[in-house]
């Protein structure tokens, strides 16, 4: 799976570097980097991963010696058998070393290390899913730009045919029905251009609101 993801990223990056123009001043690498750095879900998993490291250190602390210290003082006033009072003071320092706990310390350390590995895989999975979703939004924007360019070219072709058939129809060379047909096709080409421009606006909003988009589940974009 990891190799397949690498192939996808290589393909996308090569595609961008070879044939794609700058999108709103942001490259694909910048878009993916922004998502991975700012997405709250990824940030949460990343901090959980760091917390697991600290829990490993906490479990391994039982292998190390411990030093405990205590200091006490007070006041004693007694009348048995004689009345007297005094102030006892005491200071203690104790050094202890764990020699054997039936493997409990080692088992707990291994358990915490396994949790670190588990959290690392969760972080990797969340990062890859959001990165692929970022690529999807980015490439959808590029596709919308390409479709818009084709729609503009198609409209120019229909405009040229419209003018030619109009002149031929006015000269009596072509039938009037041919002129009406090219008018309908010209209107359809204009409608297609409006649709492609609306798609660009939608993709632009998704691209600019990338971090909000990736808080949803993959597949809802």
In short:
With 221 residues, the chain is mainly α. The chain is built from six helices and four strands; from the N terminus they run H-H-H-E-E-E-E-H-H-H.
Describe the structure.
The protein has 221 residues and is mostly helical. It has a single domain (2-213), classed as Outer membrane efflux proteins (OEP), CATH 1.20.1600.10. The chain has 6 helices and 4 strands, in the order αααββββααα. It has helices at 2-19, 28-38, 40-60, 104-170, 176-208, 210-213, and strands at 66-73, 76-78, 84-86, 89-96. The strands form 2 sheets. A two-stranded antiparallel sheet has the order 1-4. α2 crosses α4, α3 packs antiparallel against α4 (104-170) and α4 packs antiparallel against α5 (176-208). It is rod-shaped and about 140 Å long. The two termini are 22 Å apart. The model is unreliable at 1-25 and 211-221 (pLDDT under 50).
End-to-end distance: 22 Å
Number of domains: 1
Instruction: Tell me the major beta sheet.
Output: 2 strands, antiparallel
Mean pLDDT across the residues is 78
Helix count equals 6
- Under CATH, the topology can be stated as Outer membrane efflux proteins (OEP)
Give me the CATH architecture, please.
Answer: Up-down Bundle
Describe the secondary structure blueprint for this structure.
Layout: H1 2-19, H2 28-38, H3 40-60, E1 66-73, E2 76-78, E3 84-86, E4 89-96, H4 104-170, H5 176-208, H6 210-213
Helix pairs in contact: 2-4, 3-4, 4-5
């Amino acid at each position: 799976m990891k190799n397949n993801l690498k192939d996808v990223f290589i393909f996308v990056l090569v595609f961008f570097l070879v044939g794609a123009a700058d999108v709103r001043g942001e490259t694909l690498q910048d878009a993916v980097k922004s998502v991975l750095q700012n997405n709250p879900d990824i940030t949460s998993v990343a901090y959980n991963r760091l917390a697991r490291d600290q829990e490993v250190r906490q479990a391994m602390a039982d292998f190390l010696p411990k030093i405990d210290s205590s200091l006490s003082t007070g006041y004693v006033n007694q009348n048995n058998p004689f009345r007297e009072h005094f102030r006892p003071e005491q200071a203690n320092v104790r050094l202890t070393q764990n020699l054997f706990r039936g493997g409990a310390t080692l088992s707990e350390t291994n358990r915490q290390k396994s949790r670190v590995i588990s959290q690392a895989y969760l972080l990797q999975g969340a990062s890859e899913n959001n990165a692929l979703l970022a690529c999807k939004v980015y490439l959808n924007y590029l596709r919308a730009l390409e479709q818009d360019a084709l729609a503009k070219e198609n409209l120019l072709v229909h405009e040229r045919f419209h003018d030619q058939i109009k002149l031929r129809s006015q000269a009596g060379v072509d039938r009037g029905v041919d002129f009406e047909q090219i008018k309908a096709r010209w209107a359809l080409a204009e409608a297609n251009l409006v649709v492609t421009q609306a798609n660009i606006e939608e993709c632009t909003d998704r691209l600019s609101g990338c971090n909000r988009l990736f808080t949803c589940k993959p597949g809802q974009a």
